[in-house]
Amino acid sequence: MPEGWQWDGTLFRGSAAHYERGRLPYAPGFAGAVAGALGWDGRGRVLDVGCGPGTVTLDLAPFFTEAVGLDPDEDMLGEAGRRADRLGVSGVRWVTGRAEDLPAGLGEFRAVVFAQSFHWTDRDRVAAAVFGMLAPGGAFVHVGDLKDPPAGATPLPLPVPPYEGIAELVRRHLGPVRRAGQGTLPHGTPGREDLVLARAGFEGFARLVVPAGQVVERTEDDVVSWVFSCSFSAPHLFGDRLGDFERDLRALLRRTSADGFAEHVPPTGVMTWRRPG
């Protein structure tokens, strides 16, 4: 868990409706690439911890008998259920709860996945719980965008969203220290998952990078949704000044480009550890 910060239920309040539109996708085919690397073949169960609106849960579901998505935010799980219905994905169930509630009577799994969510948890406690929930040889899977990816080969037809300007605008409205729920992150979020998982007894670290680089065009509304999908700029943080912030944000985006934006989909980085056996 981030130093100097305590979890509360407002971490992503109001963000669920913005996720699908605002967030860039993971690398196309990443779920199949991970399944191939780890030998997933349609048997067993997978647990996605901090599943949000089910993005990764639904991608992984075809490689297992059952997929379970766990998240403390009811709105996120509502979005996940609607997305599953829309995509016609079966064999998935959604459970309200925190990672710290594990094992929560959920049973044994072949894989437990954290997609950009492990850093929000009491990591030593959660890693120990996951170790006990995995079948021998089962995998702890950490999924995220690759940091500092190489420049995309395809030229962009439009400007990249002004991320530095957006960050400065958020600071102007919310203060210089990053917000998260009712607290702040004075020291950012923690890393060194390898040390945490070694303490829990995991072995056999492996890393997989799934390439991407496809060009995605983004409208002004898409970028606004990205901002509101983030914990540091979730809608509730602005209180009765939300309308003022959105007005300033849209003005910044229009000054940058009246015709929209474009980005390269970043590669997906996957780190895995095994329960011995």
Structure description:
With 277 residues, this protein is an alpha/beta fold. It has one domain (16-274): Rossmann fold. The protein is 33% helix and 22% strand. It contains nine helices and eleven strands. The chain has helices at residues 16-22, 30-38, 55-60, 74-87, 123-133, 163-174, 193-200, 220-228, 242-256, and strands spanning 45-49, 66-71, 92-96, 109-115, 134-145, 179-180, 183-184, 203-210, 215-218, 261-264, 268-274. Strands 3-2-1-4-5-11-8 form a seven-stranded mixed sheet, sandwiched between helices. Strands 6-7 form a two-stranded antiparallel ribbon. A hairpin with a 2-residue loop joins β6 (179-180) and β7. α1 (16-22) crosses α8 and α6 (163-174) packs antiparallel against α9 (242-256). The two termini are 29 Å apart. 38% of the residues are buried.
Entry summary:
Keywords: Methyltransferase, Transferase. GO terms for molecular function: methyltransferase activity. It contains nine helices and eleven strands.
CATH class: Alpha Beta
What structural class is derived from the secondary structure elements? alpha/beta
Continuous helix count: 9
What's the overall geometry?
Answer: globular
Number of domains: 1
Q: Write down how many β-strands occur, each being a DSSP E stretch of 2 or more residues.
A: 11
Largest β sheet strand count, sense and barrel closure = 7 strands, mixed
- Strand content range: 15-25%
GO molecular function: methyltransferase activity
Domain Methyltransferase: 46-138
Protein name: SAM-dependent methyltransferase
Organism: Saccharothrix longispora
